[in-house]
Amino acid sequence: MQKTPHVALLIETSREYARGLLRGVATYLRERGPWSIYFEPHGLDDPPPDWLVDWKGDGILARVNSREMADEILATGIPAIDLRGALVGLELPFIGVDNRPIAKLGYQHLRDLGLKNFAFCGTPKGENPNQDLRCQYFVELVEEDGAQCHVLLGEQQRQRAPSWEDQQQQIAAWLEDLPKPVGIMTCHDDRGQQVLDACRRASISVPDTVALISVDNDSHLCNLSTPPMTSIDVNPSRIGFAAAEMLGKMMRGKRPAQMTTLLGPPRGIAARRSTEMLAIDDADVELAIRYIRENATSGVRAADVVAQARSRPTTLERRFKSILGRTIKAEITRVRLDRAKLLLAETELNVSAIAVRTGFAEPKYFCEVFRKHQGVTATEYRKRFRDA
Fold first, then answer.
1. If phi over 0 gives left and psi between -120 and 50 gives alpha, with beta otherwise, what is residue 257?
2. The HTH araC/xylS-type domain covers which part of the protein (predicted)?
3. pTM (2 decimals)?
4. pLDDT tens, 258-267?
5. What Cα–Cα distance (Å) separates residue 290 from each residue in 118, 152, 285, 304, 376?
6. 99-234+269-275 has which fold?
7. Is 233 helix (H, G, I), strand (E, B) or coil?
8. CA distance 267 to 345
9. What integer is the mean pLDDT of 37-59?
10. For the domain 283-385, what is the CATH code?
11. Coil, helix or strand for 190?
């Protein structure tokens, strides 16, 4: 009888990203398991568990956040994978998200609001390489379009961490100096919630003056924020599944093909009130965009959108394309497909039902449009991106 592998999961439960990793591992176990799991709830900054020193298991999946944790894992000699990526040069395989498409999705979402001013709020440089890259890619995208990106990263911790009040005052002062209206991306939901709180302190209206998008889509934190916070779902369960799959191979004696594996793109954007802004000077185009976003999934056509405006159809179409870079029809299709992708990933609705709910006349036409724009069928997309 084949021995059941004993695997330790040193993954915190306090963050949505980490919980998503665990869901991915659970999916792997349902499909390929079983494993005997060593797991106890803990925080990201907790020290290594006492039992790890003498543990005789077969594999470890860990969110390594300190040199102490890294050294104890390496000392075991057991096959292990890092799911944090916080330590540069760590001698463990790392699996994580590709931050370039995350930054691109965030920037495009803010740019589509008609914004011309952009900013990024992150954590101190060097604290986490992944968050550094998220900022770097966002800044590059803004600058490629000929704009300036204002950045606040905070200071490295010296003897003691700055208090919450000190951090909020620093963020509020930064916000007051930004050109407005402004679109802000934050490195993760924790930072996004801080920025929204600082906006209230500085009497800066969200989303009228500031539009904010964060990363990780922790629904509890996003909905506790005022206003509720738009966030990018990076699909962490996919990372967890891939890590479990790699660890399974390592426990069978196979070495990983590479030390760093980045998976993407993100699943999509969970749009909430923090980005319900349209910073567009053209009243007719703004009205058309709002009408599309509110009614695209009800089966509206370009003619219905034009009928809402005072401008002549050809004039509105020209101005619309000049501002957004796409036609009215293309914008309707984009909004419908964004909704369809979320339904494919988060529900059990069949493709025909999703076609109806997203405003497509026929399932066959929906499938054709989806494949044309996404490069895969709707069924393939669901299999690739749905949560565990």
1. alpha
2. 286-384
3. 0.83
4. 999 999 889 8
5. 22, 31, 9, 13, 29
6. Rossmann fold (3.40.50)
7. strand
8. 8
9. 91
10. 1.10.10.60
11. helix
